[in-house]
Amino acid sequence: MKIVDIRATPVNIPFRAPYVFSYGSIASLTKTVVEVVTDQGVTGLGEVADGDRSADVLAFRDRLIGLDIRELTTAESRCVPAMRYTPWGNVIGMRRAFGGVEMALWDARGRLEGVPLFVLLGGAVRSEVGLTEYFSYRMPGPSEPGESSPSEVARYCARMIEEHDADTFEGKVGALGLDEEVRMVREIRAAIGDRRLQLDANGGWTVPTAREAMRRLDPFVIHYYEDPVETYEEMAQLRGFTRASFSTHVVDLEKAIRLRAPDTIVTNINEHGGIRRTVEFIRACERFDVGFRFHSGETSIASAAYLHVSAAMEHVREPSQTLFRWYADDVVAEGTFVPKGGLVAVPKGPGLGVTLDPKALRRCHERFLTEGVFPQGKGGRRFRDHFTRV
């Protein structure tokens, strides 16, 4: 069970229609696919979420060749500094890159032992994982017209109920004028009935704007505001202004415990340095009564990993985020996961339970070479300017 080679390939996963959020608009996401080859002919799959990390992953290669794939602690110590900061490297970047390698080590072990990842993690407490249905204003894309008005977004949500029985909706705010976003949320609520509704501002509001937004949006029964403002301290200031809970992508459990805000941390596996560290973090969240769920945006490799972890960890109780419906391509032979009734079944095959498609990998890598990292998409700036003026 020894490592004989490591490969890393940056890929771009395009959206069917570029979406708009508080940072602008985006048509594609860049990820790094990791392959760890073992001396028994099995290749484990992993993924780094934050762009092109191929050089960082390949820098680990010589440090890990010959190591047993089960020696996760040794592998981590060879790749990630023990300190939080060093002037000779980017510790956060190294931790995220190692997270993709570590994911592949788990996958390789599961394949060699013939069991799914959730078995290696102790067994499943659920066979299906809850996921949200996403919405936002979207630009016209190659295969979908997008949505550019409150009524169009509401009709899209209604269609997701009709076609896929979606039961939890989450979408972008903080990107347009508040009057327009209130109209959008009003129409969405009318379209989805009493289904759960969550709003994500990506830190786009100031505290005064967030207070006014919550005053106007709370009547539509909002379950969560995600990153309504940029900091934990600002979220704590908003506690008395809404009945909703708060969630964030910013990971600081110590501060969440001290400030009692946010209620839930929403992140991915790479942020913690791999599956083992993510499991430890979830257990710490459970101990201190802080919620945890995953965010989406990865290929079906890392998505499979978070499905397995969600299956094995009882504390991941609420629906995690997903952009699956918006993907126009993927790198696995099985294709992108398709939520039905707000659920996706956990893969049952060995390891992560997904298979790399070499042709799809080449296609997505060639797209990366053509587009570059995180392209905004043709027309994205014009679209953003238009809605800024509204």
Describe the model.
- The structure is a single chain.
- Helix content is 38%, strand content 19%.
- The protein starts with a strand and ends with a helix.
- The chain has helices at 54-59, 61-64, 72-79, 91-113, 117-120, 150-164, 178-192, 207-217, 232-237, 253-259, 275-287, 300-312, 358-371, 380-389; strands at residues 3-21, 24-38, 43-48, 128-130, 133-135, 168-172, 196-200, 224-226, 245-248, 264-267, 291-294, 343-345.
- The chain folds into 2 domains: 3-116 and 358-389, Enolase-like, domain 1 (2-Layer Sandwich), CATH 3.30.390; 120-345, Enolase-like C-terminal domain (TIM Barrel, Alpha-Beta Barrel).
- It has a 7-stranded parallel beta sheet with strand order 5-6-7-8-9-10-11, covered by helices on one side. The protein has a 3-stranded antiparallel beta sheet with strand order 1-2-3.
- Helix 11 (275-287) links the parallel strand 10 (264-267) and strand 11.
- The model is unreliable at 376-390 (pLDDT under 50).
- With 390 residues, the protein is α/β, with parallel strands linked by helices.
Summarize the structure.
With 390 residues, the protein is an alpha/beta fold. The chain has 14 helices and twelve strands.
Question: Secondary structure elements and their pairing?
Answer:
Elements: E1 3-21, E2 24-38, E3 43-48, H1 54-59, H2 61-64, H3 72-79, H4 91-113, H5 117-120, E4 128-130, E5 133-135, H6 150-164, E6 168-172, H7 178-192, E7 196-200, H8 207-217, E8 224-226, H9 232-237, E9 245-248, H10 253-259, E10 264-267, H11 275-287, E11 291-294, H12 300-312, E12 343-345, H13 358-371, H14 380-389
Parallel strand pairs: 5-6, 6-7, 7-8, 8-9, 9-10, 10-11
Antiparallel strand pairs: 1-2, 2-3, 4-12
